[in-house]
Amino acid sequence: MKRVLSQALKELNQFRRDRLTVALAFVLPLAMLLIYGFAIRLEAKNIPLSIQDFDQSALSRTYIERLFATNQFVPTPLPGPAPTSALDAGTAKATIIIPPDFERQIKLHQPVTVQALIDGTDVNNARVIQNSLRATTQFFLRTSDLVPEEARSPIHPQVRLWFNPGRREALYIVPGIFGVILWVFPSMLAAIALVREKEQGTLVQVYASDLSAVEWLLGKELAYLLVGLGEAVVVMTVATVLFGLRLQGDPTPLLVGLVIYLAAAVAFGLLVGARASNQTGAVQGTAIAGFLTALLLSGFIYRLENIPFPLSLLSNVIPARYFIVITRDAFVRGTGWVGVWYAPLAIALIGGFFFRTATRVLHRMQFSD
Amino acid sequence: MPLSRFRSLMLKEIRQILKNRQIIFLLLFPPTVQLLIFGLALNPAVNHLSLGVVDYSDSPASRDFVAALVANDVFEIQSFQPRAADLGQQVRTGQVSTGLVIPPEFAERLAMGQTVDVQVLIDGVDANTAGIASGYMKQLINHYGQTLAKPPGSSSGSSPGPPVETAVRFLYNPGLLSSWFFVPGVIGVVLTLTGSLVSSTTVIREKDVGTLEQLLMTPAQGWEILAAKIAPLFVLLMGDVLLASAIARVVFGLPFRGSYPLFLALSGVYVFVAISIGILLATLARTQQQVVLLSFFFNVPLIQLSGAIAPIESMPTFFRVLSFFDPLRHYVTIARSLILKGVGLEVLLPEVLILLGFAVLLMGLSISRFRAQLN
């Protein structure tokens, strides 16, 4: 135990002396927090909408007013005569075409069809636009008294959004960023440290000493776990200030989960470093791989349920997926252990596997020499 | 003979690349995996949302109502709960993401022609999904309600449906396939990551090993050394463009509506941008480890601000303006326009000019920094 501690201290001293790495180890996570926290917004606001009004009547103008009254759309002129011209040029995301007999038909109680052309490129916002156009049309009909009382729906849905009634996207994105950042950076630092020892040949000295592979790795594990905790404190503090996140309810799941998660991340980095040949390119490749899986297969951006079959199996062994469950609960839901008890267990299982494999790889290297 | 000198320098680079299995691996494996994972895993679809139902009415009318709500695939019944409190606990622990509470007087009030309130609970943690789900739920309930409202006797004479119908047509991506949105952007991401990685490693290795000094002692000029490095990388990365567009076409069925030669040419321009970024990173760093961290530092914002993953329109103003200085943003716009919209050069001209500007600027910057380091 003492040997592990002194090994960890040595490692921390070494880390502290490399000024650039220390700076990057704390500046990079913050930069990532700012960029992801502010720039990932899935739902577009101020959607440019152009209108081709062939009717030019009082009623069609009321309809147009209603569309822009929601503050979700911004009027944009059509650049050409073709209705698709604004979408082709990318200046509008949707175009509404009001037919020439709009008002007359409505007055005659004849059904009218308003055409909506929506840019389907951005699938998510295409759906958002479709929903809000439909809802606005309903609203227009009701407020303009165009639907007779008896034809209205007698069932009124009272929709309540739990945990996040204002639908602030930061509450969803920022806890997810914790998962990505606190995986990528601790593992990358640990991998780089291990590769460095290999490249400089100091690993051979360790083989010659009476330190066992497990003790040596545990020392590194402990050192970078501490660095990771430092990063976690910095990132979470800044996030609570900037994005107004607050801890909800019991903080123990977060504390326990955080330590286990960081340990798993460092173990992953050590494994990568142990496996990698002496090329930094390999470490970089794996860093990107770890980054992408934590980003894409963890439910950080879109729902986990949407990941198709073979990939969904892979997402089960991505620790970030479980940690994000913990952070979202800690900062938004506040349910506590009842909702997240399984997550720290799953992370510990995967992290333990990483650490065991890393010691095995190192063991094999030691005896093959 | 400067030409033969250039040729032998280039032959040396090609031989070095071919000998280095790792670079070949980096050129083939990560781009393929990245394209596949991005294209398959990122999917904003809102369907099969788990729904918990508390039906206090427990009548034919309420059962008919629930059946109508789950008739399409948006909501899927996960469980029926006896009490609203149980449903609340299920939402809290994340077992269901939506809930519906039907009051006991549901059937009686409808039969008497009165209005009735139903409660809909939605887990709002995922703000985006919650917004779309709530929109769908309101539409479904409203639609069902209107079919009820039509009195059976009088329906023949008056209007058969709502007086104004919104007919929606999705252009460019009628099936709303999410891979069609992500894959063109990811082609740009792949080129950025691979291009900067490969070019920075080839430059920094020479610096690390110290062979750069040896090259300097030859009569070759700085630009010749660099050009000989860039040319084979350019060819290899264009191979990546072909690989990526083949995956896009075959695996994801992207339409490639615009001119393919134009797409290749503009991708070539972007490859120059990516290579310059790599060289620039290599001149900024002293060791390979620093290159790893620095490239992360540059590439993450480059990708995030490009609109490849999250739409630019939804970013706050500051980041929207900042994204203008991101060369990847312009390439992604071009790729999406050419692959999905099929517009021509006349529409894309501003973006193309900006991209060319970036290529010239970054290339010039990296060459001048490289030369400054040589002297």
Descriptors:
heterodimer; A: 369 residues; alpha/beta; abc type-2 transporter like fold; four-stranded mixed sheet; 15 helices; B: 375 residues; elongated
Q: Would you give an account of this structure?
A:
The complex is a heterodimer of chains A (369) and B (375). In chain A, helix 2 packs antiparallel against helix 7, helix 7 runs antiparallel to helix 11 and helix 13 runs antiparallel to helix 15. By secondary structure, chain A is of the alpha/beta class. Chain A has 2 domains: 242 residues, no CATH class; 105 residues, abc type-2 transporter like fold (3-Layer(aba) Sandwich). Chain A has a 4-stranded mixed beta sheet with strand order 2-1-3-4. With 375 residues, chain B is an alpha/beta fold. Chain B has 2 domains: 241 residues, no CATH class; 108 residues, abc type-2 transporter like fold (3-Layer(aba) Sandwich). A 4-stranded mixed beta sheet of chain B has the order 2-1-3-4, with helices on both faces. About 2% of the residues of chain B have low confidence. The chains are: A alpha/beta (369), B alpha/beta (375). At the A-B interface, helix 2, helix 4, strand 4, helix 6 and strand 5 of A face helix 2, strand 4, helix 6, strand 5 and helix 7 of B. Strand 5 of chain A pairs parallel with strand 4 of chain B.
